């Protein structure tokens, strides 16, 4: 039971990280600059953890000669993290969490069915297909809820494009997880795989910021002092990655996914509530339905 509670706590980290990085963007000026800082902090955190866990033997050289896609996890992570920063002001915490989760689950089924990225093949069964339909039903219930917070001024078309983007970002996250999972097997440590992913993400973001001519600066939006916690997004992301790596050997992948998703959904509802947005019962019911679908997909 304690491990499951730790999984729920790890899941709570994700919506908090999105909120933190969104606040950081307000001070740095662009989503790519805030993503760079977040990835850099996360990389340093993972470097410390990986050094402690592996004793400095990261095993990265074992990945040389592997297919090129083995190094794409960090690139997909950049898109997913930056995408969440862009989504949050338009869709609120609940939809920013739920829509990528839906994409992650659906892409996960595709990856399992076809054995993509050297993953074990797990054909799509009737029960798993039913679970996927239930997840989609829960997502539709949430995004169609009158209480779903969205940015004022966005047209209906714009909102649905943002929602589609959230779903696609989730597909990227699922692909990243599969790639990093295989990289972790090659290096002998999932923490080393996460360190590689973050390092590639940092390198990508450095180049993007150079191309976009971002000059490091920290502003004070509306004259308000910058809170200390806006720098913690990278550490929170590293905690989530390390938490998953620690949980899977203890309770299995399926139960880890269910526990962390439950934590993410509960955290998103709490954040929207604290921000003053109205959380409708239809949204809460939709989250419960999604959880049922995830349980069918992962545990049955």
From TrEMBL:
The chain crosses the membrane at residues 34-56, 68-88, 126-148, 160-179, 191-212, 228-247, 253-271, 283-299. Keywords: Membrane, Transmembrane, Transmembrane helix. It holds the Pfam family DMT_YdcZ. One of its GO terms (cellular component) is plasma membrane. The keyword Acyltransferase does not apply. The keyword Membrane applies. It comes from the Bacteria. InterPro entries: EmrE-like (IPR037185), YdcZ (IPR006750). This is DMT family transporter. The lineage of its organism: Bacteria, Bacillati, Actinomycetota, Actinomycetes, Mycobacteriales.
